[in-house]
Amino acid sequence: MASHRATKSGIALEAQQKMAGKWDADRAKTAISWVGQRIGRPLTTDGTMKDVHLILKDGTVLASLANWVRPGYIPASKLSKAPTLPFKQMELIGLFLSCLDEANGGPVKKTELFQTVDLYEEVNMVQVILTLEALGRV
């Protein structure tokens, strides 16, 4: 979780713990490996939420996956080097989500997509994996 957020307590803590209980390291490893195969770049993870977060947070892997789904969707100029500014990283994540969104001509239903904050701030990594799995099914 981002260091600038207050420590969760009460219902918020219970919800976070329940979500963490749904994490499946094997599913995460499979999803990340699948992404790597699609973008032509071997990706491996130890299966922890933190490791998956680090792999995907800057948005470049997801942007490359978006271009696998819809070639040329994200201009090469945005992928020439990994962005270091948070808003640029979140922009790439948002472009990936737009590419997948069925309403925008993508293959994944809106209900199966994560939100940018889910990944960027490591709020709901379970949903991130569910989105990748949904893409894999289509």
TrEMBL record:
PROSITE patterns (UniProt xref): CH
GO biological process, one term: actin filament organization
Species of the source: Candidula unifasciata
InterPro entries recorded: Calponin-like, CH_dom, CH_dom_sf, SM22_calponin
Transmembrane domains' residue ranges: none
PANTHER family (UniProt xref): CALPONIN (PTHR47385), TRANSGELIN (PTHR47385:SF14)
Pfam families: CH
Organism taxonomic ancestry: Eukaryota, Metazoa, Spiralia, Lophotrochozoa, Mollusca
Protein name according to UniProt: Calponin-homology (CH) domain-containing protein
Domain Calponin-homology (CH): 25-138
